Amino acid sequence: QVQLVESGGGLVQTGGSLRLSCAASGRTFSMYRMGWFRQAPGKEREFVAAINWGAGSTYYADSVKGRFTISRANAKNTVYLQMNSLKPEDTAVYYCAADSRAMPLSSGSAWVDYWGQGTQVTVSS
Q1: What is the arithmetic mean of pLDDT over 83-98?
Q2: Which residues have C-beta within 8 Å of that of residue 66, sequence separation ≥ 6?
Q3: Spatial CB neighbours of 68, under 8 Å, sequence gap ≥ 6
Q4: CB of 54 within 8 A of CB of 102?
Q5: Which residues lie below 8 Å from residue 4, measured CB to CB, with a gap of 6+?
Q6: For residues 69 and 57, is the Cβ–Cβ distance under 8 A?
Q7: Is residue 123 a contact partner of residue 91, using CB atoms and an 8 Å limit?
Q8: With 90 as the cut, is the pLDDT of residue 102 above it?
Q9: From CA 107, how far away is CA 125, in angstroms rounded?
Q10: CA 32 to CA 79: how far, in whole Å?
């Protein structure tokens, strides 16, 4: 199986930046895609961004396009989420995710085979 360990969450002011990291270990040879979801209090978990492990193709939710960038470091089995121009609406627990089945992103969270523990991002006004 794959284990996902996240870091980089914290408290930042509106307009600031954070970079989240997710290091994968275990059977990483089976990974097809990694990405990020987030969940705010009282809201459903929502898709943020994803990257195909091999080709590096990226996908973003409309709410973060132009502000967030997902990237990967293959040699480190690590995926990053660079978050710029942060807004209070971005406040949530951010979860790293990995897929080994190449399921469509349109399946919502159903494509996720492995989850990280989550890291809190808080954006203050």
Answers
A1: 98
A2: none
A3: 48, 49, 60, 81, 82, 83, 84
A4: no
A5: 22, 23, 24, 96, 97, 98, 114, 115, 116, 117
A6: no
A7: yes
A8: no
A9: 34
A10: 13
Sole residue written with tokens 């492990």:
53
Pairing of strands 58-60, 68-73: unpaired
Which two tokens mark 124? 């203050």
64/85 Cα distance (integer angstroms): 10
Q: Residue 22, Cβ neighbours under 10 Å: how many?
A: 25
- Hey, what are 112's tokens? 């996720």
pLDDT of 44 above 90: yes
At 71, list the tokens. 């990237």
Structure tokens belonging to residue 10? 């914290």
In this structure, are residues 39 and 112 in contact, taking their beta carbons and an 8 Å threshold? Answer: no
